[in-house]
Amino acid sequence: MSDTLNHGELGIIALKSSDSLGSLVNSRIKTLRNVNDPDFTYLVPHEEVRFNNGEGKIKLLDTVRGKDIYVIADVGNYSCTYNMFGYTNHYGPDEHFQDIKRTVSAIAGKANRVTVIMPLLYASRQHRRKGRESMDCAMALRELENLGVNTILSFDVHDPNIQNAIPLTSFENILPTYSVLKHFIENENGTPVKDNMTVISPDTGAMDRAINYANILGVDVGMFYKRRDHSVIIDGKNPIIQHEYIGSPLDGKKIMIVDDMIDSGESVVDIINQTAKYNPDKTYVSATFTFFSKGVEKFDKLYEQGRLTKLYTTNLSYVPDDIKKRPWFCEVDMSRFVAKIISTLNHDESISPLLDATFRIRKLLKNSQ
Description:
Elements: H1 3-6, E1 10-14, H2 19-32, E2 46-50, E3 56-60, E4 68-72, E5 81-84, E6 87-90, H3 93-107, E7 113-117, H4 136-146, E8 151-155, E9 170-174, H5 177-187, E10 197-201, H6 207-217, E11 220-228, E12 240-246, E13 254-262, H7 266-275, E14 282-290, H8 296-304, E15 310-314, H9 321-324, E16 329-332, H10 335-346, H11 352-355, H12 358-368
Parallel strand pairs: 1-4, 4-7, 7-8, 8-9, 10-11, 10-13, 13-14, 14-15, 15-16
Antiparallel strand pairs: 2-3, 5-6, 11-12
């Protein structure tokens, strides 16, 4: 069966939080499937309504009956706004997640199957209990399961074990490793990476991610251990007292610090300042999501001091345009990768080959040397 004969069965509902990514993915799928009709789109038209008291509603403007529907939403997009009682409010993760549920509700079981693509998993840092506290991420996954969602796709989840909350629903934690490293290698202009680089985990929790990067590149891996003051809570966290480095020497090496997200950036800034003591040649940072909730000026300063070479991140979540213009900022476009995943799943084929980046990265490294 040809791709062009199959394209009518696919529908993409890109909520306004992911409007830009959704448009790119739509174009990419059309290219993958050789759809040349400029008026054809996989995007399902819809309205996202907000009433004056803040209540919301999703209204679908076209049929989804029998279609394979993919709902794309960026729960971290704080640029979206709505008016409530005369005030302008910015969307938070709660509002975005509520709109995802409204969308699935509007589909009302008419679709063949529903897949929610939530690149930044809602409440992903609220994945386990350390006391009398809520389990927002687990509850959110259960809600989507109960609404009839067949598959949930997310990227670089803070703790992938959270999928155990919905053992009977398909959950895919996708790593952007290939796209990020491909962009990095191309930016390095073919400079040999092996034997001249160390991948660093900023803490014990990110070690699996660092090992994944290091194994694919075939380089050493190191880790910083955070000693925290558990008697004090500042901004919801125990402050870090000291960083301890465990790993191979960094003198004269390129280093890549990898993490799932940068929020305020304080932790990454601390690690960069710590690694500067070991006289590395260049310092790169790779983070799937970058919020810069405060302190972006610290990254400007590190770049000016020569302590930060480049920061690589994806377009899976919102980043303001003024930050994208920074000389140290490198955005990795994930739309082609997302389009391949959607197109493959829509054809009931396995996405496992797309998720394993090792062979493709090593082939790219070999060709660049």
